[in-house]
Amino acid sequence: MPAPQKKLIFCTAGVLSLACALGTAAAIGTQLWVRGTILCTTGALLVNATGPELHKFIGEIQYGLFSGQRVRQCGLGGRPFQFSFFPDLLKIIPASIHVSVILFCTVLIIFALVGAGFFMFNAFGSPYETLHGPVGLYLWSFIACSCGCLIMILFSSEVKIHHLSEKIANFKEGTFTFKTHSEQFANSFWTILVCSLVHFLNALLIRFAGFEFPFSKSKDSGRITGAVDLMY
Questions:
Q1: Please, are residues 104 and 147 in contact by the beta-carbon 8 Å criterion?
Q2: CB neighbour class for 146 (10 Å; exposed up to 12, middle 13-18, buried from 19)
Q3: Topology, domain 3-209
Q4: Fewer Cβ in 10 A, N or C end of the chain?
Q5: For the stretch 199-212, what's the b/e string if a residue is b when 16 or more beta carbons lie within 10 angstroms of its beta carbon?
């Protein structure tokens, strides 16, 4: 492939990696990872609420990796409540999984920035033969993509398997019991998915630029090796 086209591909991949790093950094600080509604089962059972009356006992909840807010509805109007994971909720959430999600988000940002720098270096500089060359570009893209997948898997398990929303909704609630009525992942969670797909796309762009995948042997090298073996 001609050099100008390679530069264009590397610049595109570098800009995409930089955008992923900035997007992940922005996603970490938001409360838009999960949105849902919570049902005050205690209040609904007390008045035997059904149909339209049930809406008076359905509140809202949304949270991110560090903080969130909920609006509890128990028939007397909404009452907002702000909370933070550190240090308020550490005793009721799976802290090891939650910290791992934050750690992998940090690693994703770092390697996305590293990948963006090396993409630009390969576009406008003279690439080295080792980690600065195509093997390094595959490596940075693979690590960033893997971190994004791990973030989604761990956070999904924390929300769905460990019932994170219900634990948050029942935090410091002695009389009333809340149950998750509806729950869906919000914009910041899907930003991580997009970033993972972008890093996978970057690996395809490297291949499209004419570089072989790491540890792959070309047919020509195999023919040369076979011819040498026949000489002996």
A1: yes
A2: middle
A3: Butyryl-CoA Dehydrogenase, subunit A; domain 3 (1.20.140)
A4: C
A5: bbbbbebbeebebe
Rounded-to-integer distance, Cα 83 and Cα 175, Å: 19
Length of the chain in terms of residues written: 232
Q: Which residues contact 176 (CB under 8 A, 6 or more apart)?
A: 40, 42, 43, 72, 74
Per-residue pLDDT tens over the stretch 116-163? 888 888 777 765 444 556 777 888 889 999 999 999 999 999 999 999
Nearest to 69, CA basis, from 78, 58, 60, 57? 60
HSE of 220, CA atoms in CB hemisphere, 13 A: 0
Q: How far apart, in whole angstroms, are the C-alpha atoms of residue 12 and residue 20? A: 12
Cα distance between residue 185 and residue 204, in whole Å: 28
Cβ proximity of 191 and 198 under 8 Å: no
What would the two tokens of residue 38 be?
């919570």
